[in-house]
Amino acid sequence: MKASSGKPSILLIQPIKKRESHGFTLLEVSVALGVIGILFAIATPAWSSLLNKQRLNTARNEAFQAMRTAQHKAKLQHVDWQVSFREVNGLVQWAIHPDSTLPSTSLWHSLDSNVRIDQGTTLYFDGTNNIYRLRFTHLGRVSGQLGRITFSSKTDSQTKRCVIVSTLLGTMREGEKSAGENSDKLCN
Fold first, then answer.
1. What CATH number is given to the structural domain containing 91?
2. How many Cβ atoms are within 10 Å of 70's Cβ, its own excluded?
């Protein structure tokens, strides 16, 4: 032992160097990506279903407005008017025109490309011109067959939206059938 000089000895302790870390470890990134992937896998079918329902609702609303417009024009002009629906090259189209004429190509309006006319459609089908039609008299009443135009998605045939013409006076209402409902049930 050495003799001390009278001054207290100070033992210097050097701090342990901290390892500086910037960013995330590979494990943390992998876990985060895994969680995001799982959430995405859960959300995708719900998002797809929501988009299909929105497309069908839009198609139904357009069809309803087209029918109302044809009915209004018939009353306003005192001439029979017709709304026609057809499916051409995978696209559903509609047109409003006087009953006495066939619509020209420029009169047809297309619905969303993922929408199709469903087999549940009961409007009069004109096989010669390949169109479903609904006619209104000059009084705005239905001329001929009552029925419904039903739309379904090309990817989900169980979810349906429709416009129903239920009385000769031209009363119309919108209907629907969801995928979870009884498969025998029509769009109501």
1. 3.55.40.10
2. 26
φ/ψ (deg, to 5) at 82: -140, 145
- Which residues form the domain of 114? 26-177
Instruction: List, in sequence order, every residue forming a beta bridge with 81; answer none if it has no partner.
Output: 98, 136
Specify the pLDDT at position 102. Answer: 84
The pLDDT confidence band at residue 144, using thresholds 50, 70 and 90, is: confident
Domain assignment of residue 147, yes or no:
yes
Question: Can you tell me the distance from the alpha carbon of 114 to that of 156, in angstroms, rounded to the nearest whole number?
Answer: 10
Decide if 84 is inside a domain: yes
pTM for the full predicted model: 0.76
Beta strands 124-126 and 131-136, pairing class: antiparallel
* 184 inside domain: no
Give the chain's domain count. 1
How much is the average pLDDT of 48-72?
A: 94
Asked whether residue 44 is assigned to any structural domain, the reply reads: yes
Phi/psi at 186 (nearest 5 deg)? -80, 170
